[in-house]
Amino acid sequence: MVTTPMPATARKRSEQYAKNVTKRGHVKKSLSPRVEKRLEEERLRKKGIKTGQPVLGSSARKAIVVLLLITLGSTLYQILQPFFSSAGHQPSQASKPKSSPDLTRQQQAKAAEAILQAMNREAAERYMKTAKDYKPPAPPEMPVEDVDEDNDDDQDDDFFAREVPKPDAKQPLV
């Protein structure tokens, strides 16, 4: 039986795969360097390396865990506190509801009326105080009509006989 030699590419692949048998788990997934590089980048991206995102250090991770525990613990404490508190426990002053006064509606109305009367009395006193100091302004002086002492009616008539110009009429320029 005559055997023909294997093509060069097949022989090369066969030799590389034969070497991989001795590597015990460290076998490349591809023989092509481009494909191998792409696979490595994908593996690193899945781990969060070289993605441009900041990688948290161990102290930062511990600080975040502590803050989460404190937040969640205080939330659970606030939720479960009413169930585990004793029945005789008095709520604090801040959480006590404001008690309404023990006055009837009539007593409340009388108290409101007394307050309004006191306010009116105070306003009236202020008004009276300012009214005492108030001096009305002097009346404006009225123009005195020109008494025609010399009985020259023509001159006065001319003054009152002037025609008042209409606003829409064109006025001569002076």
Automatic annotation (TrEMBL):
Biased composition (Low complexity): 90-101
Basic residues: compositionally biased ranges: 21-30
Residue stretches of biased makeup (Acidic residues): 143-158
Composition bias type Basic and acidic residues, residue spans: 126-135, 159-174
Region (Disordered): 1-30, 86-112, 126-174
Name the UniProt record assigns to this protein: Uncharacterized protein
Organism in which the protein naturally occurs: Coemansia guatemalensis
